[in-house]
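Need residues for this backbone.
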């Protein structure tokens, strides 16, 4: 059974009374303001005025990527990596998530420790050196290609009608 707004306001004020000393007048004022706030929230919810685009978490984007976890700014959950499947639940992809929250487009959406492990594994396999070699070979290959002139073809159509 759902609680009424008055019951919710009373529970909130009761919790406040248990943690701080309040006079009778303070309790009445607090109860009135809490009830009014709950009414305003309910009215905003019914009318749809609550912002759906607002992030669920009040964290600066640069603080959401931590050593061992990344916090999704849409729902507030913690992950090792924000997977494409999770981002699809919020109707986003990696690129749009980065743009929405101001991350650089090359920023990995994973915990720093995972990013560092991937970087170390790539270096062990020799990826940076292999990449340099591939770029150098591509430059040599492009330099050796002769330039090809484009020829224009004449249009072939129907012969003109004789009068």
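Answer:
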């Amino acid at each position: 059974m759902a609680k009424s707004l008055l019951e919710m306001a009373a529970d909130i004020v009761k919790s406040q009374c248990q943690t701080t000393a309040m006079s009778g007048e303070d309790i009445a004022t607090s109860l009135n303001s809490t009830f009014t706030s709950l009414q305003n929230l309910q009215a905003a919810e019914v009318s749809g005025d609550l912002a759906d685009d607002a992030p669920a978490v009040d964290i600066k984007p640069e603080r959401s990527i931590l050593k061992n976890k990344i916090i999704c700014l849409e729902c507030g959950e913690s992950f090792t990596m924000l997977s494409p499947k999770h981002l699809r639940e919020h109707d986003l992809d990696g690129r749009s998530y980065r743009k929405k929250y101001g991350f650089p487009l090359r920023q990995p959406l994973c915990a720093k420790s995972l990013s560092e492990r991937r970087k170390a594994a790539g270096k062990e396999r020799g990826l940076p050196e292999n990449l340099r070699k591939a770029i150098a070979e591509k430059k040599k290959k492009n330099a050796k290609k002769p330039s090809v002139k484009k020829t224009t073809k004449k249009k072939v159509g129907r012969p003109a009608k004789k009068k």
